[in-house]
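Notebook B, p. 112. Complex prediction, attempt 2.
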Amino acid sequence: MFVYMDHTATTPTNPEVLKAMMPYFSEKFGNPSSVYSFSKEARNAIEHAREQVAKAFNAEPSEIYFTSSGSEADNWALKGTLDKALKSGKGDHLITSQIEHHAILHTAQYLEKYRGVKVTYLPVDSEGRVNPDDVEKAITDKTALVSIMFANNEVGTIQPVKKIGEICRAHKVPFHTDAVQAAAQLNIDVKDLNIDMMSISGHKMYAPKGVGALFLRKGVNPENFLHGGAQERRHRASTENVAGIVGLGAAIEILKGRLNDDKAKISAWRDKIIAGIQNKIPHAKLNGALGEERLPNNINFSFIGVEGETLLLDLDAKGISASTGSACSSESLDPSHVLLAMGLKHEQAHGSLRFTLGRLTTDEHVNYLLDVLPEIIERRRNMSPLWEDYLKSLKA
Amino acid sequence: MALDYSKKVMDHFINPRNVGEIENPDGVGEAGNPKCGDIMKIYLKVNDADKTIEDVKFKTFGCASAIASSSMATELIKGKSIEDAWDLTNNAVAEALDGLPPIKMHCSVLAEEAIHTAINDYRAKHGLEVIPMEKHED
């Protein structure tokens, strides 16, 4: 059985989306910037996709800029805003959080190192939540941007975006949110939520890899990130990924049409898995917030005494694809920065597993996971000196 | 990150040899720490007459290569004299596994260190000179 439980890593392109994209490879291949009428089809397709994306988030089509990815949108928002603020002398301070995706964190570190930007990395509580009061306290007259993610990719905790947006608005500081995970699962109204900039990514929402978008509220104009031609109304150079953009638009339209149904179905599975793990596996710690404050598709547990990569390979042998915050599955020696920021010990972070559900999930998959996981954990715990020590510490 | 492990690593990871503990062991050694995500504990039963390793067991917290390295290292020292067992290098463990990904080489170092610590534990208990441990750059 192939049980894909890593929808946060990426999603399959919806066949309907792929169908909408197909004509833009070999038939309607015109360069959208060309003058002749043949290229108009490509140009129109992009503008249609822009309307689809704008509508989904209650934005104006003129406020949507297509990019190559969510990472590019994040880079653009941060570097473009800070570059402008530095040049005009209006500010040199960026506020973000300790649990951001690396697309934000590493960009912030770049700005510190090469542009002399001062960055505040706000802490989070034990469930991975940024406190809006901390945002307000961190704002100074030099603050050029606040960037707080909409929902965390590892533990699924949804941030108090509206409140943070309100605070930023009151202090006249632009507010960017990385909504790469949230956009596929939650209703987002950029007007209601006081969002000035928002990054999204196609492949997290059943569109292909290689396409994303940045929402820029009218009047919010970060310096360009990619220089060259006059595409995207002179704000983002490079010939458009027409098929990808068409795919992003189609995927978002389909997604928004079924969002509430998906949310109900997927969060019911999520809660069944959480309850099942808590019933069947002793000393399993749920990471992240509960209920409405958690992404509908996210399950993240720490299993004390065992290491995540080991569990991933055991699960893989059973046909289940999942993810871990352990360092062993990364290039670094440190485990997940998100789990550490939430106050977990290193060994708890090393022993974390994430399952993220989506359109490929079925009842059968959920039952199968709950069937095989307890045995896997028990077997590996019995090989572990840490588990032995942990059991002894409980008796002491 | 998808790691490409050799068939041997996967075999020793899925079906590790010599897992467990020895009651009243003659030597115990531990290496690694939970912060790095790897701890290896080795238990030895040594024949006092000819100083050979009669039995060896391990318990390991760590990734697949840490478990496979423990399994392979215990296989390689079983039946050997404590002098020969001491000479088992981390490279020999990695080679016996048909190689480890470069980022995982520290797992084989851990096996060597745990064995050295266990042998020294035995030597100290039996009035033998404790051998200075080499520190690996890791």
